[in-house]
User: Fold these one by one.
Assistant:
Number 1:
Amino acid sequence: MTIEEKALNYLEKDTLAHIDMIEVIKRGFADIHYAGDDGVAMAEKKGGVQYLSVTHPKAGERLLSFFNERVPVMVHQDFLADRAVEKLKLAGYNKCREFTYLKKEKTYTEVEGIEICKLSMEWLDKVSEIYHLIDNPEYIRLLLEEGVMHGAFIEGELAGFIGMHTEGCMGLLEVLPEYRRRGIGEILERYMIDWNLERGFVPFCQVFTDNEASLRLQEKLGLTPSDKYLWWVY
């Protein structure tokens, strides 16, 4: 059994809770440090995000030693969050809920007056300026280079955008203030769901638990939530 198979054997015992780690492995850009019956420790090769899921605190303490300091880590158990901050010299964490689109049916239909297209590198400064959750223009540059950022345009003006993180998670959804309350966020996410399906990917996203609007949007679009939480430690 390969280390990838060992990792999937553990993670697929609760697919909805681990879809982020599963998709990194299946898309071929996982660097797996450890996989066993007591957990999985791994990193995503392109963006460097680290991942950890374990069965008990003692395993968590041991597997945290595989990770680099001051590099974000996604942990799947609450008892890991504070310990990851301390041991990896990180600043804090956000509690998230993971959503997965389990259907095969496409969900996007074109809307008159709204054009969605791939964003080119010329949008680097604009996207970096607008999207405040990531203060890293080089990361935005990488996503633009990979062709995973898409914008919604109304009469030639950028109204909003969405993308896919290096680990495969849908995100970076932003609608400019003057275009809000017009359903553009929903349109963009529907487009991104189909974009993933067309490439054989499982569409999934992670939402901060205090983002009520986004939580409602995922339910409206038919994504299935995990009954467990995860913690984005940064």
Number 2:
Amino acid sequence: TVRTSSARRPLLLVLDDVHEADVSSLRLLAEVAETIRTARVVVLCTARDDDRAWSGHVQARALLLGRAV
């Protein structure tokens, strides 16, 4: 698991184009982030910052913004 692996050495998880993810995938990402909160893991997500990239994903965008605050 991520937690077990990070106990041996720090990990970097990179997720590209997160703006393409559906709401359930983003919820899973949020749950994983909560689970590994105290682990030596950095999760780097990339996404477009324009509104067109998030069209149809209003709930997903709100979920991400909620976690960032």
